[in-house]
DNA sequence: TCAAAAGTGTTCGTAATACACCCATGT
DNA sequence: ACATGGGTGTATTACGAACACTTTTGA
């Protein structure tokens, strides 16, 4: 076992698996590292936890620094603590997943010392990642696969107004399989948590689809009941 | 924020929510602390992680020190990291739940410096707990409530040979509700992972029940299929 | 008029639920 | 003989799965 880094008062860090949905693809946010170890490698965004912030606060801060965005849906999913996961010392990492609406091509701001740049990468086309980040990514993807069946997390990836086909698309990408259109719509609408809008999709060269929004009030009323999407 | 304790190279600890089933009751393992802070309070068993052991190894070691038992089913479920959760400094805690066969009245060995004694307590009758251990316990219980529906963890609480009524009892205690006997048996047997033995319960003053054991081989073959107990 | 996606119902099989009585055993 | 838990079947309902064609729109 190597020496613990002397500058670490508390040797734990946060790593984030940030999912985004855009152009029909499920993407994950990566950075290119600007520091040793693993300088110039791709990695999940992450950083040390400050001594005066909780784990949740730390995760939010890290994402805010990278994306400028504040109200992001995040959840802690696992803590990775193998002895040799960090080549310079004993650093455990608490992993979070986050779900992000991409829509308006929001600019990423990797103006942090440890990252050269940040970018989105399709999840089926990942480069080699630093540390044990490959494993963290995989466990994060598994987690949202299970979560999406029981909680309305898909809406976090979509704009406020979305079509049923877009919604189905998100489900298919996360679950990794095709779904039947009629069954999907029937079931999704049967929960009564989608509000049909008097508004249609625009700018498409075919029949415009109806837009819906997720009704958080109605969903809150269902709470306790196990929904199974 | 208080000063970080100087003796901590790595300021993280493990806490364990250890469930046991005995005499028809679901119990949790507690210790009585012998150290500040919270001296003389009841707490979940836990300790600092050593610099040369992984989190899983640490959790196993802590339980081995208390119970003398080695092959215990454990799983990490959440990491608690509020800034003020430890009154003496910044200490985050990685929480594990464990499931234990109680049967033969195995002796507990609380021969560790930090605990005066260890004992089992019915989960519906818990004392005030040190730190944020009440919250950790509750989140652990929630976790096994969800787990038991999809994974065969109930068997970890039972002796190798058990009756269907005992099994149902475990499910009812963890899920917190009564189940229908006929439906429970039909469903449980339909998975084909229980092996009926040529053996009956002994020492009871009524009709002896058939004993079963959990067939890990057959269960392994089902893997990938979502079982829903 | 063609291409591309939107939108829509029915059937079938399986799984979940509700429900009550007789049986075997030890005292 | 009685008390205690063991053990069993059926009918009803709800849910998931499979499946194909017509409609709308813009280019």
TrEMBL record, chains A, B:
Domain Nudix hydrolase: 11-143
Gene3D superfamilies documented for this protein: Nucleoside Triphosphate Pyrophosphohydrolase (3.90.79.10), Winged helix-like DNA-binding domain superfamily/Winged helix DNA-binding domain (1.10.10.10)
The organism's place on the tree of life at top rank: Bacteria
A Pfam family assignment: NUDIX
Record-linked PROSITE patterns: NUDIX (PS51462)
Protein name: 8-oxo-dGTP diphosphatase
């Amino acid at each position: 076992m190597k020496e613990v880094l002397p500058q670490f008062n508390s040797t734990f860090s946060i790593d984030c698996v940030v999912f985004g949905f855009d152009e029909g693809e499920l993407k994950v946010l990566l950075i290119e590292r600007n520091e040793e170890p693993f300088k110039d490698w791709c990695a999940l965004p992450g950083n040390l936890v400050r001594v005066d912030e909780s784990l949740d606060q730390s995760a939010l801060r890290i994402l805010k620094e990278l994306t400028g965005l504040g109200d992001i849906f995040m959840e802690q999913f696992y803590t990775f603590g193998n002895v040799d996961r960090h080549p310079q010392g004993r650093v455990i990492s608490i992993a979070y997943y986050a779900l992000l609406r991409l829509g308006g091509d929001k600019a990423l701001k990797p103006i942090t010392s440890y990252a050269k740049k940040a970018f989105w990468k399709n999840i089926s086309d990942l480069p080699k990642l630093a540390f044990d980040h490959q494993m963290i990514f995989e466990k994060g993807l598994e987690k949202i696969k299970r979560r999406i069946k029981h909680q309305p997390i898909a809406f976090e990836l979509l704009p406020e107004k979305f079509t049923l086909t877009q919604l189905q698309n998100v489900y298919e990408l996360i679950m990794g399989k095709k779904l039947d259109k009629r069954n999907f719509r029937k079931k999704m609408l049967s929960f009564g948590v989608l509000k049909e809008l008097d508004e249609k999709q625009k700018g498409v060269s075919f029949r415009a689809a109806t837009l819906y929004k997720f009704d958080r009030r109605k969903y809150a009323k269902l709470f306790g009941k196990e929904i199974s999407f």
